[in-house]
Amino acid sequence: MLKLEEAKDVEEMAKKINDTLKLIHDIDKIFFMRSQNSKSNVIARTLVLPAQWRFVYGEKKTYIIEVISEKFDNLTCDEKIYVVIHELMHIPRTMKGLRGHNYKGFRMVNVMSRKIRKQIC
């Protein structure tokens, strides 16, 4: 059975990454969650809330970054940084829509994660 919970540790890591790399994301508009027993093959994923849900729940949260517990929690701190940066790269600075993997910033994820790992881990 799928179990969902808030992922405050991932949110704190994302805040540190955002501040250190000056990514200019409004982290308060992102909800961070951890799922257990997911059938997904990914380590993490970024979702945008549909306009209808934002209308019902208010504009406070626009995105969800979900980490899959069985895969994410076993990673090293360096690997977690890489994954969180990767997921943040899907969110444009305008906070509208999602970026695909063809966005040029994805080529810099390795460089960015190496640059800040000593400050975060």
Automatic annotation (TrEMBL):
Top-rank lineage group of the source organism: Archaea
Pfam families, A to Z: PhageMetallopep
Limits of the Putative phage metallopeptidase domain: 3-110
Annotated InterPro entries: Put_Metallopep
Record's protein name: Putative phage metallopeptidase domain-containing protein
Organism of origin: Candidatus Acidianus copahuensis
Organism taxonomic ancestry: Archaea, Thermoproteota, Thermoprotei, Sulfolobales, Sulfolobaceae
